[in-house]
Design goal:
By secondary structure, the chain is of the alpha+beta class. It folds into two domains: 9-53 and 160-296, no CATH class; 66-147, no CATH class. Helix content is 71%, strand content 8%. It has eleven helices and four strands, in the order ααβαβαβαβαααααα. Helix 9 runs antiparallel to helix 11 (264-296). The two termini are 21 Å apart.
């Protein structure tokens, strides 16, 4: 199946391609604009979800909830010593009481800095490998050294966020596929409408010896160009929108939203969308035209 990007003057006169603007081009621009936005959202969400999983997989928080000060300090020291000996632990840092008071300030106000307030000790732990087995070994060792310890995996309490982001990624993929299907449907309708418009001309071409394949090439070439030109326009507008939104996200200072940034691979995939849709339109137009010609003409 061959498609020439530059049509001859005869072909343009035959299929009324002398018009500078066709509705098909603008329809495809809108379709690609929405498709690229959905794809960018999906790729950005996938990147953020992957980054979140990687960051949280090996993170633990150890709390020593012993109410007696000297016992809490002793168990904290024992837990720190145990964590430093474990090969699975890359880093273990005790959170100072000042930092804990700042964390509690939104709920307790200035009372969080009261030295008589029994605030649990807290230790941030980074594991070299964030597997379930490694986390279980570390938890068991810490509990043996500090009976009042509670070990929380960041991955566990952030899993609803991760699941939601994965759901949004699949939703974006579904939207892209839906837009591809809608594009194919629009192409089929446009091809059939063109056949009806040029029915008399096509009958003359058949009498002159033209085959169905040759007639189909005229339509698929026109529709491919319409889709490509409109797709490039819609993609350019969508990419500009994505860049603008990305600049706004960087000003928010959120690590989670900052992970929505697109990689070089993502930009390449977005740039390939108008070409992919042009190929899809070409195939859809060819099949639609050949199907109608074989049945009625």
């Amino acid at each position: 199946m061959s498609v020439r990007l530059i049509t001859s003057a005869a072909d343009r006169r035959l299929l009324d391609e002398s018009r500078s603007t066709r509705a098909m081009t603008w329809i495809m621009a809108i379709m690609l604009f929405l498709t690229v936005l959905a794809a960018a959202f999906g790729l950005g969400t996938l990147s953020a979800a992957t980054l979140l999983d990687r960051q949280l997989a090996g993170r633990l928080t150890v709390q020593i909830v012993e109410p007696v000060d000297h016992a809490r300090e002793a168990q904290t020291a024992a837990a720190m010593a145990t964590l430093h000996r474990l090969p699975e632990v890359v880093k273990a840092t005790e959170v100072s009481r000042t930092q804990l008071a700042e964390l509690l300030r939104p709920w307790l106000g200035s009372d969080g800095a009261d030295p008589d307030l029994p605030i649990p000790a807290m230790i941030d732990v980074d594991l070299g490998v964030g597997t379930d087995a490694a986390a279980a070994r570390v938890t068991h060792a810490v509990m043996a050294a500090a009976p009042a310890a509670r070990v929380d995996r960041h991955e566990a309490w952030m899993s609803p966020v991760s699941h939601f982001m994965n759901l949004m990624t699949w939703l974006a993929l579904g939207l892209v596929l839906l837009m591809a299907g809608a594009t194919a449907a629009v192409v089929i309708l446009a091809a059939r409408a063109g056949l009806e418009t040029h029915r008399d001309t096509i009958e003359v071409l058949h009498m002159l010896g033209s085959t169905d394949i040759q007639v189909a090439r005229l339509f698929q070439r026109r529709i491919a160009l319409d889709t490509l030109f409109g797709g490039v326009l819609g993609t350019a507008l969508a990419i500009g929108t994505v860049v603008l939104v990305g600049m706004q996200l960087t000003t928010l200072g959120s690590d989670l939203l900052g992970g929505l940034a697109l990689s070089s691979r993502d930009w390449v995939l977005l740039g390939l969308l108008p070409i992919s849709f042009a190929l899809l339109a070409t195939v859809a137009a060819r099949l639609a035209v050949l199907g109608v010609l074989r049945r009625s003409l």
